[in-house]
């Protein structure tokens, strides 16, 4: 199942096209389902809890002998490793700082992979969303940051993040693009015809 349906993707693309007609900035939007599969997180938690098992059983030495304890450890590890892979449980096991760190790394990779650092006048802008992490980030090249401080985008990011949390990602994209567009039109009004980068929403499923 797509993160956004075709109609929503078309609306986002149309909004980008309209904004780019009025500014020299090049906008690219990227939507990721998840920044990482976090395979190591369930294994880490399962390992820690399995290793703590002997300490707990030590208070009741009559329960298990050494061989039974080892088998019990293995069983606990396997059971928890499977259980902790369930999406609803796994999400709760991952610290917010880790989720945002992984999403931020992916955003920066996308900025480079989409060639936003090679635009004419260094006016590339990335609007990045990772749905699972409920993470939104706006990255801009030097041509934009020289005129608009990076801190200026934070209020727009906060509003977009709230939209993502409510499951209103498509509407969040449109509002974010339009809000960014107003600032870009004021500081970087269109002075030439250009379309260096794709206007459609890039989806990392």
Structure at a glance:
The chain has eight helices and four strands. The chain is an alpha/beta fold.
The helix-strand sequence is HEHHHHEEHHHE
SS-derived structural category:
alpha/beta
Q: Helix share of residues? A: 40-55%
- How many beta-strand runs? 4
Computed over alpha carbons, the radius of gyration is 23 Å
CATH topology-level fold name of the largest domain: Diaminopimelate Epimerase, Chain A, domain 1
The helix tally amounts to 8
Please report the distance between the alpha carbons of the first and last residues. 9 Å
Which percent range describes the beta-strand content? 5-15%
CATH architecture of the largest domain: Roll
Task: State the strand order across the main sheet.
Answer: 3-2-1-4
Mean pLDDT: 88
What is the CATH level 1 assignment of the largest domain? Alpha Beta
Please describe the biggest sheet, giving its number of strands, its sense, and whether it closes into a barrel: 4 strands, mixed
The rough form would be described as: elongated
Which segments are poorly predicted (pLDDT under 50) over 5 or more consecutive residues? none
Number of domains: 2
Could you outline the blueprint of secondary structure elements for this entry?
Blueprint lengths: L5 H15 L5 E7 L7 H18 L8 H18 L3 H7 L2 H18 L10 E7 L4 E6 L1 H4 L8 H12 L3 H19 L14 E3 L1
Parallel strand pairs: 1-2, 1-4
Antiparallel strand pairs: 2-3
Helix pairs in contact: 1-8, 2-3, 7-8
């Amino acid at each position: 199942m797509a993160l956004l349906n075709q109609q929503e993707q078309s609306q986002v693309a149309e909004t980008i096209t309209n904004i780019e007609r009025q500014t020299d900035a090049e906008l690219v939007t990227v939507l990721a389902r998840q920044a990482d599969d976090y395979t190591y997180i369930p294994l880490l938690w399962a390992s820690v809890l399995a290793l703590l098992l002997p300490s707990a059983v030590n208070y009741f030495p009559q329960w298990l002998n050494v061989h039974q304890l080892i088998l019990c450890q293995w069983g606990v590890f396997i059971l928890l490793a499977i259980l902790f892979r369930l999406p609803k449980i796994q999400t709760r096991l991952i610290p917010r700082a880790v989720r945002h760190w992984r999403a931020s790394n992916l955003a920066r990779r996308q900025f480079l992979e989409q060639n936003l650092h090679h635009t004419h006048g260094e006016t590339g802008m990335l609007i990045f969303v990772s749905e699972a992490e409920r993470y939104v980030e706006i990255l801009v090249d030097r041509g934009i940051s020289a005129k608009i401080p990076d801190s200026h985008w934070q209020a727009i990011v906060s509003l977009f993040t709230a939209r993502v949390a409510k499951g209103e990602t498509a509407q969040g994209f449109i509002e974010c693009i339009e809000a960014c567009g107003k600032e870009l039109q004021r500081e970087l009004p269109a002075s030439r015809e250009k379309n260096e980068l794709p206007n459609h929403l890039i989806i990392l499923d």
